Structure to design on (349 residues):
């Protein structure tokens, strides 16, 4: 046994730097070695590891415990809390799904109605009564036409001025 | 989970749970009752068992919580930790190489370690047990005790230092 290596490992152990595997290795070394061959420096830590190993080997619960427990578990009723929990969870899922379907239906229905209204408005213009729309259109066109005639009268006068100007220019030549 | 699955997957940790319960409760009857109660809880919550990535650590945590509940409800006494060292602890020793004097001396020494453990705080005892007896990782210990990993490391270091000091003192003044 290379006790120097063991001593290094023990130093690491006291510093809290050993891994679980290294600690298991120390447990194995100290429980399997001949206590008389241990260097003095490792005596106290060996005691500790033997104690840990002995503790970890205590298995007092045998088959009698298993049989008793399994009988108890067999006789146990289905947990009402768990059953109720699952029921409420499923109910919640179902409600969420239904709510989603209803919301989606309402949304698409609203969108459809909105699109339909817009389409109808586009067909009828700004009036929803065709007769009224016709009258209003006629009125607007008459107004435009009246203004056009007025402009035409002014244009006639401008033409006269142009003719007079031409006459004056010719007389000067 | 069927009863057969429970027997194969959960029941094998019974002795680990028992040893931890013993460390907490300090007597066999209470420890056995605690383990039984924990298994019944696990069985009742078997539908949720897949949500726990480490069933063993979860069971250990249930033991600890159960003990705390018991302490709170004052149904159990926080009895002393100085239980007698089990006679089975000699199974590691190469007995054929030891004289009766050596066996007695070794049992006394084990008793001394048990006493030194009793001087540690409850948390330090639990951490030392989970690490040095059961071989759990820092992360697992933190999960079981519901504390930070750094707290685990600090408490483990302090506990080991205290045990080392105690052993050195015992050696210097002579162990009885």
């Amino acid at each position: 046994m290379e006790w120097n290596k063991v001593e290094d490992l023990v130093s690491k152990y006291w510093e809290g730097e050993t891994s679980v595997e290294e600690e298991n290795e120390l447990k194995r070394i100290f429980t399997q070695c001949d206590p008389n061959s241990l260097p003095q420096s490792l005596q106290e830590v060996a005691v500790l590891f033997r104690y840990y190993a002995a503790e970890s080997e205590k298995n007092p619960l045998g088959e009698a415990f298993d049989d008793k427990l399994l009988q108890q578990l067999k006789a146990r009723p289905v947990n009402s809390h768990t059953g109720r929990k699952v029921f409420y969870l499923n109910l919640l899922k179902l409600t969420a799904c239904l709510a989603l379907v209803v919301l989606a239906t309402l949304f698409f229905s609203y969108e459809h109605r909105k699109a339909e209204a817009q389409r109808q408005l586009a067909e009828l213009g700004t009036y929803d009564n065709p007769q009224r729309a016709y009258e209003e259109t006629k009125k607007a066109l008459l107004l435009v036409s009246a203004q056009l005639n007025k402009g035409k009268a002014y244009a006639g006068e401008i033409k006269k001025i142009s003719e007079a100007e031409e006459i004056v220019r010719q007389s000067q030549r | 989970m069927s009863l057969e699955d429970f027997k194969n997957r959960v029941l094998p940790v019974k002795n680990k749970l028992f040893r931890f319960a013993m460390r907490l409760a300090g007597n066999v009857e209470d420890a056995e009752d605690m383990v039984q109660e924990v298994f019944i809880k696990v069985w009742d919550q078997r539908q949720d068992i897949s949500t726990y990535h480490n069933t063993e650590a979860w069971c250990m945590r249930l033991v600890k919580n159960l003990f705390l509940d018991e302490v709170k409800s004052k149904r159990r006494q926080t009895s002393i930790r100085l239980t007698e060292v089990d006679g089975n602890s000699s199974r590691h020793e190469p007995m054929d190489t030891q004289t009766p004097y050596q066996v007695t001396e070794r049992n006394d020494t084990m008793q001394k370690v048990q006493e030194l453990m009793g001087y540690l705080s409850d948390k330090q005892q639990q951490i030392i047990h989970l690490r040095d007896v059961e071989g759990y990782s820092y992360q697992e210990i933190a999960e079981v005790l519901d504390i930070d990993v750094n707290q685990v490391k600090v408490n483990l270091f302090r506990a080991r230092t205290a045990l080392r000091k105690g052993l050195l003192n015992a050696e210097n003044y002579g162990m009885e």
